[in-house]
Amino acid sequence: MRQRRIRPFVVPAVLLCTLAAFAGPRTEASEGSEGAEGAGTSAEVARLYEEASAATQRYEEGQRKAAVQQARADRLEQLLVRERGQISALHDDLGRIARAQYRSGGDVPLAAQMLLADSPEDLMRGQRVLWQADLAVNNAVAKSSRAERKLAADQRAADTTRRSVEADNVRLASLKQGIEDKLKAAQWQLQGEADQSVAAGKCRGAARLDQPETPSTRAWVAPVEHYELSAGFDSAGEHWAHRHTGQDFAVDIGTPVRAVGEGRVVSVSCGGAFGIEIVVSHPGGYYTQYAHLAAVTVDQGEQVRTGQWIGQSGTSGNSTGPHLHFEVRLTPYLGSGIDPVPWLAERGAL
What is the pTM of this model? Predict the structure, then answer.
């Protein structure tokens, strides 16, 4: 079973539904213009959610660039050390040649050496060898010096680029934090509006959001795109009077909730243990439930496609913290649920 990770800016704990009692009012969503009341906050959360994701991606890319530039600067430093060592060795070689030349008569004028030599040809041959060696060492030193100057210039350029990338990362980190702070405030404003709706037992109408530009081409998808699985189906715990009736997806407030497959919205309810919830019917006789929402983006009776945003996750109703409670049912009603994980896995959605 594959579990996807949450985006870096989302920091949920492992959260559980607190369904201590399933009794309570279940009020159908109101029709009419009330959807506009919550649409502003819903849209703001959705916008900031995407901005925070993009800012995180830019920041992580900046971190990767900084690491590449640091590695390049380190490599250039190592090359500089090697070039300087080679130059030092060449200077030593030149010194040894000069000392050998001195010991062999390098301080005597060449004409005198030729007069004193047993064989002028041998003397001239030896002098040519020394001159060639001297020229070779000087050329090698000059070449190595040019290489050192180029490496030093490259390193300065790499250091400048690295400092620029690091400065950009500081700016991106500040931008990222600012967006996340705004997102957190908007998320809790959205949740506050949801709590008011649940307390009143009267849901707002659908808050229409811009749908993803590239809708899913698959028949089935997970109810949220990025998540960790928390409380599972039929698990026991002190949070429930009976065993857990669905699968919890640990996501933060305002996370877009998707229809796992095409179908029709059979109910949008507000109040009771599940808070704001949606039930969708699918071909083949299955129903899916999406509970503890902060907002809904569809109306009862509406046809939905696979991957369409139908709501935003929250922590309405009896819930210990932000998450999505998801069920697969054989009827629209509580008590007919089956384990959602293998059901989704069989359809390639997990």
Answer: 0.66
